[in-house]
Amino acid sequence: MIWYDWIAAALLIGGGFFTLIAGVGILRMQDVNLRMQASTKAGTLGVGMICGAVAIEIGGQTAVEAVAVMLFLLFTAPIGA
Fold it and tell me: Mean pLDDT in runs of 10 for the chain (81 residues)?
């Protein structure tokens, strides 16, 4: 494997972990505000890491689209919550 494959794998594992934590946070939190915070913070980081892994691994036009999705999510998720 090439070095950027290892980085993409680490980002995918980290993104999956943070997305799992966001799902568990939604199930475990008692209040609506706490649920929104758990889903926004951990979900945004998880999806951002997954989009970063896609951008690194695939490259080209797909990398530009993955970075655009990541930036859109970073700008809109905290405002929406």
Answer: 90 94 89 84 89 89 89 83 70
